[in-house]
Amino acid sequence: LDESNRAAGKAGLNAFLHINAEEALEVAAAVDKDRAAGETLPELAGVPIALKDLIVTKGQPTTAASKILEGWMSPYDGTVTQKVRAARMPILGKTNLDEFAMGSSTEHSAFGVTRNPWALDRIPGGSGGGSAVAVAAFQAPLALGTDTGGSIRQPAAVTGSVGVKPTYGGISRYGVIAMASSLDQVGPCTRTVLDAALLHEVVGGHDPKDSTSLNEPVGPLVEQARAGAAEGGLKGLRIGVIKELSGEGFQAGVLSRFQESLDLLEQAGAEIVEVSLPSVKEAIGAYYLIMSSEVSSNLAKYDGVRFGLRELPKEGPMTIERVMAASRAAGFGTEAKRRIILGTYALSAGYYDAYYGSAQKVRTLIQRDYAKAFETCDVLVSPTAPTTAFKLGEKNESADPMAMYLGDIATVPTNLAGVPSISLPAGLADEDGLPVGIQFTAPAHEDARLYRVGAGLE
Ligand code: GLN
């Protein structure tokens, strides 16, 4: 679809940065052959998948949608890549994202925007717009994304698909380019909740190569999705509506679809109560400080020497510092530079306590708010994002970056708390006919509950 659009001079969806057709066809043919021979195969064998271009892959480029990594080929596979291969799933290619996963619109990619299939002049969400669009536009049945502050869930919400951010440590980050390591998680992007559960079981579980990986088995996610979808599957479930994330600042059409979903849950036998998490109001501030601080440290390795692009100074002495500066100036986009500068400042001596230290304290308060809410509720719920897909260009790095950041209000708190969350479709908003997402959050290690309630509502 994208290639024929491009050939015709029309804007494509631009969901993929790299298409891996030949290898994918080979894997599919080998699966067909073994299936015909009567071999027992893994459950998702032969089901194609797209990978966000932040996940490293041997034999295919990995760019993080940044010029600084253009031309770089990873010498190894990430753990999730290995698991997908072991499950014999053909890898269709690598999907577009905001540079180094920084953004909520995929407009910060160095390789062009991705468009929302529901309205081509609208953002597909971000940072994982490519993975969500590949799935929503039926270019791939399954995809993997990463979520540091909502990059799987918000694209799912605005494209009418399903996205899951697991419990921190639930899916290995080995071989996933780091944005903010204490927040980053890999997760499924799919069209149904059951598909997400199936994929989560393939890629999840303990990995000794990731020191933050949880030492516990993944699941039983598929079983819980099936139980939730069965008659009476939601009976007795106590669902807390997060007061701070379901009123002021949210689009009317988002709130009416949200309310309808709550009514459906109630009819299915769930009990709906209201809960307050007062500290989530401070989540954006804490997130943008902690995330930027970690970004400034993680992105220090792109020095023009070890990976990808090397730019030489146009004049003057050819010192290592000057090669580094020239490479970073040419290789990073505006948003990446903004965050590196913000993070470096927040971590500098004299400001560390005032900024990074305070943000960490807020993070603790948010974690406590969630823990307290889970004393009385099985899961929490809110809309995934305050608005439906906004117009391309409306809030990008040159128009209004603060407005873009504020749109992350409902998704960043769960990354700060390390708890798992799912976004699934809740219908179309009356005012613009665009998809609305509803988000459920469970206590850490209880990802299975998300699949139960998600499949029950679906
Ligand atoms: N939109 C958020 C940001 O810009 C989240 C990004 C992400 O989850 N990778 O930082």
What does this structure look like?
By secondary structure, the chain is α/β, with parallel strands linked by helices. It has one domain (2-280, 364-457): Alpha-Beta Complex (Amidase signature (AS) enzymes). Helices cover 36% and strands 13% of the residues. It has an 11-stranded mixed β-sheet, with helices on both faces. β7 (238-242), α8 and β8 form a beta-alpha-beta unit. The longest helix has 21 residues, at 353-373. It is globular, with a radius of gyration of 21 Å. The mean pLDDT is 96. Bound molecules: glutamine (GLN). InterPro entries: Amidase (IPR000120), Amidase_CS (IPR020556), Amidase_dom (IPR023631), AS_sf (IPR036928), GatA (IPR004412).
TL;DR of this structure?
By secondary structure, the chain is an alpha/beta fold. The protein has a single domain (2-280, 364-457), classed as Amidase signature (AS) enzymes (Alpha-Beta Complex), CATH 3.90.1300. Helix content is 36%, strand content 13%.
Task: Give me some keywords for this one.
single chain; 458 residues; alpha/beta; Amidase signature (AS) enzymes; eleven-stranded mixed sheet; 13% strand; binds glutamine; Amidase_CS; nucleotide-binding; protein biosynthesis
**Main sheet record:** 11 strands, mixed
The total domain count is: 1
Elements, N to C (H/E): HEHEHEHEHEEHHEHEHHHHEHHEEH
CATH class: Alpha Beta
Ligand inventory: glutamine
Structural class: alpha/beta
Count of helical segments? 15
Strand content: 5-15%
How much is the radius of gyration in Å?
21 Å
The CATH architecture would be Alpha-Beta Complex
What is the typical, i.e. mean, pLDDT? 96
Total strands: 11
Strands of the widest sheet, in order across it, are 1-3-2-4-6-5-10-11-9-7-8
Approximate shape = globular
Helix content: 25-40%
* CATH superfamily label: Amidase signature (AS) domain
Indicate the low-confidence ranges by residue numbers: none
User: Gap between N and C termini, in Å?
Assistant: 29 Å
